[in-house]
Amino acid sequence: MVRKEMIAMLLAGGQGSRLGVLTQKVAKPAVSFGGKYRIIDFPLSNCINSGVDTVGVLTQYQPLRLNAHIGIGIPWDLDRNVGGVTILPPYEKSKGSDWYTGTANAIYQNLEYMESYNPEYVLILSGDHIYKMDYEVMLEYHKVNGADITIAAMPVPMEEANRFGILITDDNNKITEFEEKPACPRSNLASMGIYIFSWKVLREALVSLKDEPGCDFGKHIIPYCHENERKIFAYEYNGYWKDVGTLGSYWEANMELIDIIPEFNLYEEYWKIYTKSDRIPPQYIAPEARVGRCIIGEGTEIYGEVVNSVIGSGVVIEKGAIVKDSIVMQDSHIGENALVEKAIVAEDVTIGSGAHLGAGEYAPSKYDSKVYQFDLVTIGEHSVIPDGVEIGKNTAVSGVTTMADYPAGRLESGGFIVKAGGNA
Description:
This protein is α/β, with parallel strands linked by helices. The protein has 8 helices and 35 strands.
C-alpha cells in the first residue's frame, strides 16, 4: 500500500437526537442543508480542497442515506484506486459484533484501516459541522510546533463555554489544561472536535485505552495524552463554524445563507462545496409567482409566494401558497393556498391545500422541551398534513396524519403528532 502523509477519519455515526423528527430515519450528517447539500458535504469538500485524498467515513446510526449519498466518492474526486473514500461501519468480528461506543472507540475499531496506509498524521473530523477550513495550513502549524496533537479551537461566548471542551493555553498556544464541558469555564477557547494526531501517538493512546467504556477523544484520549506529557497545541480558527446540532441553530444557519452578503458563502470559486446532484431540470417560476430573498434548488416549481426561505430541489409550491422564513427540503409538496411560516419541512412531505403551519403564539413543548424549544414547526420526512388544518408554533409532526389526528382541525402550539414507527 502506498504510504499517505495524512489520512482523515470522519465520524458520521451520530443520531443527532436534538434535531428531533428530522433525524428519526436519517443520520444527522445526511440531513439536507442549504437547499442542495447534505451536512457531510462540508467536511468532505474541505478534505479534497485541502489535498487530503484518503478519507474513512465511520457510520453507524441509520447509514443507508449517507452511504448512498457518498457512494464511491465521485462528486468529491474521492473515487481513487489508492485512498479515496471508504465507508467504515461497525462489523462482525470473530468474538462477535461491536457497536461504536464512543468517538475514540470507533477510531480504535478501525486501526487496521489506518495501519494499511501507515500515515505520519491522522486528521480526526466530525461529520456534522458547517464550515470551511484548510487542513493543510493546520498540518503545517502542527509540524512547525513539533506537536504530538493539534486541536482546532475557536473563541465562543463565555456563557456557552460549558457546552464545549475548553482549552487553557500558554503564550505559544501550547495547551496547559483541558476541561471537557466544565461547569465553571476558565477560558472561552473551545475545541472544535477537529484533531491532527501524529500517528504513533494516536495509536499508542487508542491501544492503551481500548478497554475504557465509551472511549471518547474529549473525555479520555486528550486527558490521557496530556497526563503523559504529549505536546498538545491549539490551532486558533476565526472563520465561520456552526454546530447545527439544535433545530434553532440548524434553522439559523440555513437562514444566514440568504443574507445579501452571507457570512458563509456557498459560491466561492476557490473553495467549492461538492455534492451528489441527481437533478437535471431547471427550476420553474410561474408568471404569477412571487419570490424574494431565497435559495431555490433545481427542478423546483413555484406557482405561489416564497419569501426569506431555503427551498430544496424537486419541491412544488402550488398557486396561492405562501412560504415564509422556512426551510423546505427536496421533493416536498406545498398545496394550494397553504401558509407555511417559520417551519422546517423535511424531505418528501405533503402539506395539504389551505393548511396553516406556524399559527398562534409560542407555547412550551409537551413532547420534548430539550429538543423543541424554538417557535418552529418541524415536520419529519414522508409526512402528510391534511387539507385545511392549523398547526401552532413549537410543534412536531411525523407520519401520515389525517383529520382525525387534529381535534377541531388544530394542533395547538407546543403539541405533537408522532405516528407509529416514529420516535423523535
